[in-house]
User: What shape does this take?
Amino acid sequence: MYSSRKSQFRFIIALPTILPLGISMGGGVLLKISGKIINPDKPDIVRGYAEVIREITSKAYRVVVVVGGGPYARSYISCSRSIGLNQAQSDMLGIEVSRLNALLLAYAIGDDVYLPIPRGVEDVERAWSTGRTIVLGGLQPGQSTAAVAAIVAEVLGIRKVLYATDVDGIYDRDPRVYGDARKLNVVSADELPRVLSQRFEAGGYELLDPLAISIIKRSCIEVVVFNGMNPHSVYKALEGSVGTRVKPC
Amino acid sequence: MYSSRKSQFRFIIALPTILPLGISMGGGVLLKISGKIINPDKPDIVRGYAEVIREITSKAYRVVVVVGGGPYARSYISCSRSIGLNQAQSDMLGIEVSRLNALLLAYAIGDDVYLPIPRGVEDVERAWSTGRTIVLGGLQPGQSTAAVAAIVAEVLGIRKVLYATDVDGIYDRDPRVYGDARKLNVVSADELPRVLSQRFEAGGYELLDPLAISIIKRSCIEVVVFNGMNPHSVYKALEGSVGTRVKPC
Amino acid sequence: MYSSRKSQFRFIIALPTILPLGISMGGGVLLKISGKIINPDKPDIVRGYAEVIREITSKAYRVVVVVGGGPYARSYISCSRSIGLNQAQSDMLGIEVSRLNALLLAYAIGDDVYLPIPRGVEDVERAWSTGRTIVLGGLQPGQSTAAVAAIVAEVLGIRKVLYATDVDGIYDRDPRVYGDARKLNVVSADELPRVLSQRFEAGGYELLDPLAISIIKRSCIEVVVFNGMNPHSVYKALEGSVGTRVKPC
Amino acid sequence: MYSSRKSQFRFIIALPTILPLGISMGGGVLLKISGKIINPDKPDIVRGYAEVIREITSKAYRVVVVVGGGPYARSYISCSRSIGLNQAQSDMLGIEVSRLNALLLAYAIGDDVYLPIPRGVEDVERAWSTGRTIVLGGLQPGQSTAAVAAIVAEVLGIRKVLYATDVDGIYDRDPRVYGDARKLNVVSADELPRVLSQRFEAGGYELLDPLAISIIKRSCIEVVVFNGMNPHSVYKALEGSVGTRVKPC
Amino acid sequence: MYSSRKSQFRFIIALPTILPLGISMGGGVLLKISGKIINPDKPDIVRGYAEVIREITSKAYRVVVVVGGGPYARSYISCSRSIGLNQAQSDMLGIEVSRLNALLLAYAIGDDVYLPIPRGVEDVERAWSTGRTIVLGGLQPGQSTAAVAAIVAEVLGIRKVLYATDVDGIYDRDPRVYGDARKLNVVSADELPRVLSQRFEAGGYELLDPLAISIIKRSCIEVVVFNGMNPHSVYKALEGSVGTRVKPC
Amino acid sequence: MYSSRKSQFRFIIALPTILPLGISMGGGVLLKISGKIINPDKPDIVRGYAEVIREITSKAYRVVVVVGGGPYARSYISCSRSIGLNQAQSDMLGIEVSRLNALLLAYAIGDDVYLPIPRGVEDVERAWSTGRTIVLGGLQPGQSTAAVAAIVAEVLGIRKVLYATDVDGIYDRDPRVYGDARKLNVVSADELPRVLSQRFEAGGYELLDPLAISIIKRSCIEVVVFNGMNPHSVYKALEGSVGTRVKPC
Assistant: This one.
């Protein structure tokens, strides 16, 4: 019910410093969710993430969510290419879909979310000024939403990115090719380019593009890559008990 | 120290919920005030509404106010027609006057109001993100400020609209024509179009236009139409002891 | 004198006009295209409309295009409902999809299009100030893109709306039910509500909702409803040789 | 073909320069009109100014119009004071009325006007980028619309301001007090503060406030103050055959 | 009751007030800092002011900061003049530098600051709606940042401006010329124009220009001019134990 | 002189197709100028570039200019680091300086430039809609202005970037170390990362960062890197007779 949730929210925000979750706290956490997870074909997952995000927010975390474009973006991009639009225009269409997914998730989270969906870094700063949960999609052609996650985390001084995708983590070799590929628990950012040459994702941009990697390194932002098809995995990712932790520095 | 100040601050904001008014609470209430009531010719009423709105806000209600254009809008619209502007342009001028009235009331309410006056639905969402009282006028040509009230209530999930106008409620017949016209205490939204064919208001749009009616029906938003020439009637309208209640569903 | 300068201006833009279409010219035309026609699943149609719009623009017409949401909007709206969002939020998601379709078509048309996609009536006025072709989607919850078309036409003083949808026009009875239903060549706006009670479209809003009808009547905007699955039908609709003409006044 | 249409278009736009009005041209002219002249109580004057502005624009002048608040502004300001708002808030309300008057005039002028009404200096620069006629009202509390006229002229590099008000020019003494007051044909900006201590205008700000004077001096902007109750006087003011010319440098 | 909640709200935020500074409190204070003090050549001073502002904010004061352009502005303005740009353009460049200095200080203050830097009065009102500390630079050509300080204070109802510059206060005569010039502890706003004809500042605008003076007079805003090269002087200025107090009314 | 330049402009735009420069034309060219070249310490160069850009524009080219931050950016970034701001904040300050340089150049170019300076990709698209010359600085933290140049070129469909910096081109080895380093006339984009590991530029970002390289490759955008300390070198760069040409595909 609305009013009770609201008052709890208020109450909880106050608590944090007193009753931590047993998880190290650092002000804010950025949750990057693949568009393969958050999209209109998966209403249960959208609802599940909305609940998890409200829950985490109530536990003293300031949460920023970056959502990808997913299959609907791919439809628009594929049409874009077949009619001869340029790469930047294809990217812009994909970005709009990611913003659409962000709006869907934002509405599902409810009243404590900043609206409208931020469309640039200054919008993100303005949203941050209100104290609300922020949900956004892409920002600019030529960069993945993983890069957006890194940039936004850096701008807001957030040191931890939880990266929910549809693989269990980063492997030492491409698991689709090598049966004996081994999931890594930790990998240093310096090793990423070599490991990621496997390019796990089908859609244009790899898991972590060079821009994302350079930013997490220069600002020492930890990234946990994990399988987020089940929204509750976010709790485990927060604790560090699933996925692969990318050591940035 | 900063963090302690912050938690206390949050705690206090929450207090109201502990000391309710004895009125059922549902998060938010939308107050629609006719431009015949809020305009610069009636400073006492403007001041009175400002006080009432501050008072209600302090009683745990989140308040959104939609103000109409009134006589000043009619001056601009009349000029607009006499120089041959089109209907949409006349409407735009009327909308600007309603925003002017909204600004007048907003300044009178004071510090807890969101400024500048929202000019579109996304602005309303942005304003809502700050937690402030919102005051706005019209939004778009072709719709009454009653429709604006319905749309904004729906967008923000508000289920109760108090509609302050210069008649005592909705009558079974036009009270200006029939001496024995009877004020209705309750009327269903389905019956409205028939009853309202009397068109109580002089200015372009009837009391509740078809768009407003269709929205309150589809989202089950209760509307209380009451005589708001005395700002204190708002308390009675909140309690349901004056005017006509429109049962939406 | 103003109007003559104006027409000269238009004339010149139109010099290309050296090859007029043999169609009466009146400054501007608004093309409303259903989202069932313009969407990423139909790249050939998108490309076809882009060509037709460029062609018409070169023939002295100032063109404004309003695009609907179509099947992708329905996916988001269906998800929205299944997770319990309200009607306004569902509408907002649908509006964003219509803007996405508008962006796709705008990129396909190319350089002479105003960008970014206008999101409100003031944006439309700003876009109009540049002299470019305007493409937009929805504007506000609670109204169909047909209503958007009517409002935008009225704001810009456009008197002719070409309404491309997936039916051949307006029938005297529901053609899906009655084998002997007859397509009307002309219908008056006053008769529309009765005729349209058949509600040809599946998606939430009927072909012409009450708001759209009231605007075309008050500003005498002619609407031609026609089957637009083939982009070249636009030329015929301009000539009035296909579809149903709605006589507004 | 596109490029040929484009070049022709440009060529024509330039034609006016070939058919000047017999008036010296300097790129642009700023017309400042008192709110006592442009307001909804005077539809004929609004229509008259719209015609004159279209005419001048067609004669190669780029025109920028700054409109004042007038009697409607005074109503809002008077209410503002009686309910205890501060001076800046009163000014803001007056500024909104001046924008409303600007919108009324802009709609009357028609298609070649930039919309929406600019609300700040950057908006004015953006409007200027489109090549359209610009109409605006006030910009900021604490300054008269005469100061706005001076600032906007300076920003856009305009060297001539035509100042339409309800007096015939600047007098050597207050003409309402001294029967033998003499209208000056020319006055230097340096002498203005002394002469204007008579303060001809009733509404808060004098004819030319210190800010306006300092700007016309520093950028050498000529101002012609004239009686503009008859819109056709603008032609005479352009020629310099009516009113008082303020020599700025 | 509203006003009591309000005062409680203020009280809490104000906990500080339990630990007052021994200073009278009135809701908000505006700190105007010369660009000679806040600029990238003086990182220690920037850091110092950031700390002082955070400290004051925690002591119940709502703080708004207006920063000037300083030496970097002078570089751009000097270039602007040498290439022949007009005065308004020079001013605009100087305003952008003051916004840059404002951004530098805002980032130094940290999370409780509103971002992005407000660029107009409506932006300032929007920023005020969030409850955050506001930092801004200039607003409009033709006015000093001292005038900006006065306007913003007036808009927000702030009655006290602390004016940090590089002189110890206002002198009865120009201290650079007269060895026996005496610093004034108090000066009335009416006397300012005479005293300030000495023009202490090198950069275009004097310490308090006529616009600033007229606003502090009309809204009775007290200004304390003090030497702010040491950030801790702000505390003394708050107490009134340094600099010159300008009695506005 | 203004009016003659203006009419010439109009005239010239028309000419192009008739009197080409003897240079292949492709609609638009993007000129990227290092902040080491365009900054307030070099008024003659600013004026020179303004002239060259006006000249090129008159020769049928649509010109977009991206300006870097240069030494003033470095001052702000250095201060930012010394007070402990994060990398994104340092970048934001540098971006604001690049926008300041862009504004300086834009004012110098004059009337045909779009203002205000675009702050995001959608702003760039809006500016493009007006047909004006566009001047901008940086867009987002984490990317060089070279990347901005590549992104903007891609968005607008521009295939040629002229990159004015303070080195004569790209060398096979670092010319500051190896006396026998040889300037390359052509280099393929694939070879760039290896060659550029020498990192010619001192300021944070190398000559062409990985993001810039990946975009010029994917959209086949040719880049000519040349010494732009003399504005007239732009003509030679257009002809391809100076600097190093980066073959993108």
User: Anything to note?
Assistant: Chain B touches chain C through 26 residues (CB under 8 Å). The two ends of chain B are 51 Å apart (CA to CA).
